[in-house]
UniProtKB/TrEMBL annotation:
Protein's recorded name: MmcQ/YjbR family DNA-binding protein
Organism: Parablautia intestinalis
UniProt cross-references to Pfam families, sorted A to Z: YjbR (PF04237)
Classification via PANTHER family: CYTOPLASMIC PROTEIN (PTHR35145:SF1), CYTOPLASMIC PROTEIN-RELATED (PTHR35145)
Domain of life: Bacteria
Length: 221
């Protein structure tokens, strides 16, 4: 019942080990006392990142399974579920990286920025997990925004969900390149100084990387 908190996340093995997990054969194991030491929570993560848990009563050494049953209710059971959920949410946050953007070109762009500028995506909006930004370390200014939206929001005749990138550029150049096919007015940004590209290989990755470099230089105070 805790699987949803690990959705759209990718296991980071170095973070897992730093957190306190121990590597045993082809899986990682972690234990922690909960409920004032009355229970021991065992967490096992396999190589694919799948999480399994067991909760052992200290006094009896037996497994307590009611916390895994959605329909189980009651004050004590609710407290146990809440404690386990909090422990697993902490593991998801500190040992897994966001894995929202699945398109091949999106991954290429993310990797390019990581290698070129050593910047990681910042997920600023909990209510919009499909939106993230890159910002310069020296100025704090955004130079790229990556989002998931429907094509229809870009004026295209489709409800397909796509991954897009917003970048900065001089207004006069934006007016020249925006064509409604390869380049679009900046989605959710100032359309005078931002424009949008769908990351579906309609624009080559090499060209987008050059555009990212231009945007980076414009992200100054």
């Amino acid at each position: 019942m805790f699987e949803e908190m690990f959705q759209h996340r990718k296991l980071n093995r170095s973070k897992l080990l730093a957190y306190g997990f121990k590597e045993v054969f082809d899986e990682y194991r972690y234990t922690t006392a909960v409920m004032n030491g009355n229970f021991i929570l065992h967490v096992t993560v396999d190589a694919s990142g799948k999480v399994n848990t067991s909760l052992i009563e200290q006094d009896t050494g037996e497994e307590y399974v009611l916390y895994k049953i959605k329909s189980a209710s009651g004050g004590f059971i609710g407290d146990v579920k809440c404690v386990c959920q909090k422990a697993l949410a902490d593991i998801a946050e500190k040992c897994y990286d966001p894995d929202i953007f699945r398109w091949k070109q999106s991954k290429e762009i993310i990797e390019y920025i990581r290698e070129q500028y050593h910047d990681e995506l910042e997920f600023l909006w909990k209510k919009s997990p499909g939106n993230a930004v890159w910002r310069r370390k020296d100025t704090g200014k955004w130079y790229g925004v990556i989002l998931t939206i429907s094509r229809k929001k870009l004026g295209l005749p489709s409800d397909e969900i796509v991954e897009i990138i917003d970048l900065r550029l001089q207004p006069e150049i934006i007016r020249e390149i925006v064509d409604g096919r390869r380049y679009f007015p900046g989605w959710h940004m100032n359309k005078k100084s931002w424009y949008t590209i769908i990351l579906d290989n309609c624009v080559r990755t090499e060209e987008i990387c050059k555009r990212i470099d231009e945007s980076y230089l414009l992200a100054v105070k």
